[in-house]
Amino acid sequence: MSWWLPLQGSTFAPQIDGLFLAILIITGLAFVIVETGLIWFVFKYRGRPGRKGHYTHGNAKAEVVWTAIPAVTVVVNPNGTLANVFVYVKAGLPAGYTTPAPASDVVLDQNGCRYHPHVLGIQVGQKLAIKNSDGILHNIKAVGKANRPFNVSQPISMTTERVFTAPEVMVPLECNVHGWMHAYLGVLPHGFFAVTGADGSFSIKGLPPGTYTIEAWHEKYGTQVATVTVTAGAKTQDFTFTAR
Ligand SMILES: [Cu+2]
Fold it and tell me: How far is the CA of 58 from the centre of ligand 1 (A)?
């Protein structure tokens, strides 16, 4: 069946081929139904002897509605929350304040030719384990400014470790083999950072009482800043991004 489809180039290929065939069948059926209807109408309402046809435009209101509904659906996210926002304490900690880097690695996995997670945080001196689960060639390039750039080739299933020496929000990571593969790494001297989940929520724990500048970073919507005073107990801060 797949002899006429392009060569499968990734582990997503069977799903993509399946989706393509489903769309082809649905649109094919729709095409046949519409054309049959058109031809039927042409025959049924074709000119009769002694009568002249005339053109009417149709329903302008209906046209506005079926143009506006898809446009609104595409722009607004169902629950309005934003995932993959990197939220961190930007200022307010004493000068030179650091927290010890955890002994555990931060793992960045390449699976299905995508980075998991897409946005992540790490502390200065903590190990980043870059894992290739795909077993095909990936080439990880870090194009940071404060940290020394690197470019690592991973032709097989393997793990490469890297350590970052300077705070930097964000270090972009990309794959030279797959142009769509992008990840963003926030490097901080302390552990007061978080990435919003699928529900848009985040939590930063263990922050000593004080007044802080909290920044929220999103790859597309830029940054938002809030000043937050922490006393004993929990404190909630919302960030709102507007599409641009
Ligand atoms: Cu890749």
Answer: 51
Q: What is the pLDDT of residue 79?
A: 66
Query: Beta 150-154 vs 158-163: how paired, if at all?
Result: unpaired
pTM (predicted TM-score):
0.67
With tokens 């390039």, the residue in question is 141
Strand ranges in 39-165 using DSSP code E only, listed in sequence order: 86-91, 106-110, 115-116, 119-123, 127-132, 138-142, 150-154, 158-163
Spell out the domain ranges in the chain: 7-44, 65-230
**Where does residue 236 fall: left (phi above 0), alpha (psi -120 to 50 degrees), or beta otherwise?**
beta
CA of 108 to the centre of ligand 1 (A): 13
Q: Are 95 and 120 in contact (CB under 8 A)?
A: no
Q: What is the whole-number distance in angstroms between the Cα of residue 144 and the centre of ligand 1?
A: 18
Instruction: Give the Å distance between the CA of 210 and the centre of ligand 1.
Output: 43
Provide CATH code, domain 65-230.
2.60.40.420
Enumerate residue ranges in the chain where pLDDT < 50.
Answer: 74-77
The predicted pLDDT at position 76 comes to 43
pLDDT in tens, 78-111: 567 888 999 999 999 988 888 899 999 999 999 9
